[in-house]
């Protein structure tokens, strides 16, 4: 096992959307379930929480300590449940404003009317935001690392068909017209058919065509971002199919708060949000506090991802798994490191020297992180230690950058750990 491979120093962990804890952070995230592009609708699914798992290394006595950074916030998949009115409107008014605001079809109107009894009453968001504030302030008071997140915008997420209305899905599916209209929209990445047989014992997962209007998502996001600026904490930002609106939200915050935002609050666009390389470059120019953490599972879906990785400033790259399964975190973070190293032509700790004629440092010095061709015993000793000290200067061979240490230094800068 290489040293770097055993060193999952940062991964983004997705929330469990079935049994949220009252604190918004569940330590049982190891068995969390993620449903990309699905807005849960059940009453058990009212909060979102995510966590950043990191194994930090430093020269302090806390060396090699595993730390979890709690994150508090409301994810865009859930925000249809909340109203910004202190006195909630009735269900019909609320959901119509969220789901039927843009040229709804007759079928969609009928479907919403049908499902309305099974949707939860809207909940005022202000008290929930106060809860987020209280959680964050408690962490800060106790000297714990804390972030806002995941929060963000999602242009693709669709309301999950309420499990209590499961019988209606079956009935509707036999109705010509309704089914024809819905069947394309209820596919979930082609997985529905394969899931169909599994769902008897698992959580009901079907989608409606309803997406929460972006203006509502933005209002919920803005309220939470204001809190991050006020409290000076970082943000884990979800952005799917919404690069323009996401950038607008961040730039509006910069316009309003200036350096109070850009120099106090770092923002991680997790999995790089599916942004195009050119859009990233253009936006990052104006937002010096914007980082991105590519992942194999999500970022890797895009054909332009390698170009995106190359377009991100080396000091703004983070890395994540973006997997619900924490058991895969080490492998996925390592895979992302390998990928980033490949895209950027960076050296990779623990790997054999490139064969492109560039001489690896371990060949003449017995690199601390290199293959076991040099000082084997020293390497093994350090492998057992399983840490990389990011406070050490980068080991470079000419202009080469060592991936793990570069990413870890970025993480420390992002989290302001050395300030
Ligand atoms: Zn996300």
From TrEMBL:
Regions of compositional bias (Low complexity) in chain numbering: 46-58
InterPro entries reported for this sequence: Metal_Hydrolase (IPR032466), Metallo-hydrolase/TatD-type (IPR053044), TatD-like (IPR001130)
Top-level taxon of origin: Eukaryota
Region ranges (Disordered): 14-58, 180-201, 350-398
Example GO molecular function: hydrolase activity, acting on ester bonds
Coiled coil (residue ranges): none
Ranges annotated as biased composition (Basic and acidic residues): 181-201, 373-389
SUPFAM superfamilies cross-referenced by the UniProt entry: Metallo-dependent hydrolases (SSF51556)
Polar residues composition-biased segments: 20-35
PANTHER family: CUT9-INTERACTING PROTEIN SCN1
Identification of the protein by name: TatD DNase family Scn1
Native source organism of the sequence: Tremella mesenterica
Taxonomic lineage of the native organism: Eukaryota, Fungi, Dikarya, Basidiomycota, Agaricomycotina
């Amino acid at each position: 096992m290489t040293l770097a491979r055993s060193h999952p120093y940062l991964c983004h962990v997705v929330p469990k959307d079935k049994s949220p804890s009252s604190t918004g952070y569940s330590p049982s995230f190891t068995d969390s379930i993620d449903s990309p592009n699905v807005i849960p609708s059940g009453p058990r699914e009212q909060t979102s929480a995510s966590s950043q798992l990191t194994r930090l290394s430093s020269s302090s006595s806390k060396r090699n300590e595993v730390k979890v950074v709690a994150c508090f916030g409301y994810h865009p998949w859930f925000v249809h449940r909340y109203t910004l009115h202190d006195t909630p409107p009735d269900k019909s008014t609320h959901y119509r404003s969220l789901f039927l605001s843009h040229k709804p079809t007759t079928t969609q109107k009928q479907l919403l009317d049908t499902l309305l009894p099974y949707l939860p009453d809207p909940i005022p968001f202000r008290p929930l935001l106060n809860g987020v504030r209280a959680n964050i302030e408690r962490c800060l008071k106790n000297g714990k690392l804390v972030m806002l997140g995941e929060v963000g915008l999602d242009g693709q997420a669709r309301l999950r068909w309420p499990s209590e209305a499961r019988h209606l899905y079956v009935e509707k599916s036999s109705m010509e017209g309704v089914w024809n209209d819905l069947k394309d929209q209820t596919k979930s990445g082609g997985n529905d058919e394969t899931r169909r047989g599994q769902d008897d014992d698992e959580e009901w997962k079907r989608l409606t065509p309803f997406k929460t209007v972006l203006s509502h998502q933005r209002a919920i996001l803005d309220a939470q971002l204001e809190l991050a600026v006020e409290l000076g904490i970082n943000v884990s930002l979800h952005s799917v199919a919404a690069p323009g609106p996401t950038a607008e939200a961040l730039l509006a915050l910069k316009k309003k708060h200036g350096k109070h935002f850009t120099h106090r609050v770092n923002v991680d666009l997790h999995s790089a949000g599916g942004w195009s390389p050119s859009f990233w470059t253009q936006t990052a120019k104006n937002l010096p506090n914007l980082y991105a953490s590519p992942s194999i599972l999500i970022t890797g879906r895009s054909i332009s991802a390698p170009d995106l990785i190359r377009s991100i400033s080396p000091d703004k790259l983070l890395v994540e798994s973006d997997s619900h399964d924490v058991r895969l975190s080490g492998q996925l973070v390592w895979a992302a490191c390998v990928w980033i190293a490949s895209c950027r032509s960076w050296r990779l700790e623990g790997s054999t020297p490139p064969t492109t004629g560039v001489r690896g440092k371990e060949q003449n010095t017995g690199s601390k992180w290199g293959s076991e061709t040099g000082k084997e015993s020293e390497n093994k000793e350090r492998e057992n230690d399983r840490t990389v000290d990011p406070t050490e200067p980068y080991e470079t061979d000419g202009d080469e950058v060592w991936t793990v240490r570069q990413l870890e230094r970025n993480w420390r800068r992002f989290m302001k750990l050395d300030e």
